[in-house]
Design a protein that fits this description.
With 140 residues, this protein is an alpha+beta fold. Helices cover 54% and strands 16% of the residues.
Length: 140
Amino acid sequence: MTAHPQVLPDIESSALARASAEELSRLLGQIPEAKRARVQLDGNDLILPRQALVLLRELLVEMAQGNAVTIVPTHAELTTQEAANILNVSRPHLVKLLEEGTIPFSKTGTHRRIRYQDLMSYRDRCDQESRTALDELTSH
């Protein structure tokens, strides 16, 4: 995995991303059976799978909100610091979660590695637990 510096989109890029995301959402909604799309770039035609278009829409939505975006393959292995940054927690807290068995990890020598997919599963579980707790609080 190659690290690229994260750059926040400027105002013009955010506006363009917003318009593009809206148009792409509209097109994906109008043609739900389409499995691919032809995209033209400087006079060259590219054929993209629908999955790539859906990811592109998500990327554009994030850019429209002024967020920097990083793409990480689900099989990628992260360092403890990278994983902590994604969860927005301290590295020592993340290491505690690993040692408690809350998040699976492997060791390469003395270094812990966390699969991105396992990290996202943990985050999804936490989000679901938070939503459930909030629903319970608001239902009383």
